[in-house]
Amino acid sequence: MSDTNNQQQANITLYCAGSNLEGLKDKALGKFGRNAIGAQGDSDREFAVKLQDNTLVKFSVMAKPEVVMQQNAGMANFFSKAPVKNAAVKQAAIHQINMFTAIIGITFPLTDDKNRTNAIINGIFNVASDITAFVLYPSMELFHPEGKLLISVKGETSYTEYYPIMCRDMIMPNVKMSETDEARAKKNNEILKGKGMPCPEGMPVSAFEDKCVIPDKETIVKRAVAIFAAAVKSEVYGSGAYENPAEKLGELLGALEERYGKLDFLSNEEKSYIDNASPADKDVNKFGWRYECCAILFWALNLLDIDEPNEIVDAATLGEIIWGNDMASLMEKAVVRDKAELLDKQDLVHRYDWACIEAQIKKLQLNEVSAEVVVEWHYALNWLTGVEGVTDWDKVPRKA
After folding, report:
1. Does domain 2-152 sit in CATH 3.90.550?
2. What's the confidence (pLDDT) of residue 240?
3. In Å, how far from its chain's centre is CA 201?
4. In whole angstroms, what is the distance from residue 92 CA to residue 358 CA?
5. Most buried in the list 144, 184, 194, 292, measured by CB within 10 Å?
6. What average pLDDT does range 162-168 have in this prediction?
7. Among 5, 95, 96, which residue's Cα sits nearest to residue 58?
8. Are 216 and 373 in contact (CB under 8 A)?
């Protein structure tokens, strides 16, 4: 709630699971029925429904893909911390959040008339049902378009089983895939079908060819070295093989700096992790898995051959590349793969990630790929192809 013009304003947000927003103003007016006397505004993106008491229920639509995806990622991260006892429902809810296609902010003035407030909220839920949108209360309770509580910050849910809504028309408003993007999505869906994996029909690419900017070779090499450095710490601290892991890590980082110069290209998270003398087990595990990201970057540099994400990479193979070279020799040997090849791989792994989550939700056996490896490949490929324009390694979006 907020105080605007000395009157409390209620704030409710709709998160759309489709893109059927054409004629939204008229739809909203109709769903408020006899409680409304008209609509104001010339656009379906900014308008208001005028009520019988002459107050306004204001609607503001955000459908820019980069903003929506960023908001989705933030909300998914927020609800990932909710203490939901049913892990499958929680996973499905997070998956649903990641598929939202537009956000509609709604505000209206509050009065002491509870019947009026209930009538307005009913109108909002009628709109939500019509456009397949989820309703988020300020109390951080997310309701299904049918009115049932999907998830709350307190860990509450009305579901014992939940399957996310995924419209065939998943392409966000005002976003057009190029013919090449469409061909890439179609080709990769056929690969999934051929493997008998769940296939996300209608899901667009997440890395658009006309927006994709591949980092330069030196940036990719340095990123691979930084990932390797953090993963080495996880290996040293997680193996239990060293009486003084801090001393061993110092030796290895010193050797890395002799070959690749000062490690001032570590991300903020990597630097904090490496500097932490007593890292948490979850961080040791997190950065240990990043060997898989390193493998993808070496593949992108034509320094390593990889096939399918179904086996854990041999860390010793990555070590041979790192310890057998220095910055000069890696720069000489590395050749960045073509943009089209990187986009092909990113989109395929993007779909693998979706299939892995779908399999978890529906309790399907999936042997074709390793979900753990897919997550890391997806992360690295999203960074390589600049999904959502993000270049900060610590903030790479992973939308599946």
Report:
1. no
2. 84
3. 19
4. 8
5. 292
6. 72
7. 5
8. no
Structural domain boundaries in the chain: 2-152, 179-213+338-395, 217-333
Residues 6+ apart with CB under 8 A from 231: 287, 288, 290, 291, 294, 315
From the centroid of its chain, how far is CA 315?
A: 27
Q: Name the one residue in this structure whose structure tokens are 């656009």.
A: 43
- In the predicted model, what is the mean pLDDT of the chain? 91
- Cα–Cα distance, 228 to 323 (Å, whole number): 11
β-sheet bridge partners, residue 108: 10
> According to the 3-state scheme, what is the secondary structure of the chain?
CEEECCEEEEEEEEEECCCCCCCHHHHHHHHHHHHEEEEECCCCCEEEEEECCCCEEEEEEECCHHHHHHHHHHHHHHHCCCCCCCHHHHHHHHHHHHCCCEEEEEEEECCCCHHHHHHHHHHHHHHHHHHCEEEECCCCEEECCCCCEEEECCCCCCCCCCCCCCCCCCCCCCCCCCHHHHHHHHHHHHHHHHCCCCCCCCCCCCCCHHHCCCCCHHHHHHHHHHHHHHHHHHHHHHHCCCCCHHHHHHHHHHHHHHHHCCCCCCCHHHHHHHHCCCCCHHHHHHHHHCHHHHHHHHHHCCCCCCCCCCCCCCHHHHHHHHHCCCHHHHHHHCCCCCHHHHHHHHHHHHHHHHHHHHHHHCCCCCCCCCHHHHHHHHHHHHHHHCHHHCCCHHHCCCCC
400 pLDDT tier (thresholds 50, 70, 90): low
Q: Is residue 104 packed enough to be buried (19+ CB in 10 Å), middle (13-18) or exposed (0-12)?
A: buried
Gap between the Cα atoms of 225 and 222, Å rounded: 5
Q: Give the model's confidence band at 357: pLDDT under 50 very low, under 70 low, under 90 confident, else very high.
A: confident
Q: What is the pLDDT of residues 254-306, one digit of tens each?
A: 999 999 999 999 999 999 999 999 999 999 999 999 999 999 999 999 999 99
Rounded to whole angstroms, the Cα distance separating 324 from 177 reads 42
> Are the CB atoms for 314 and 304 separated by under 8 Å?
no
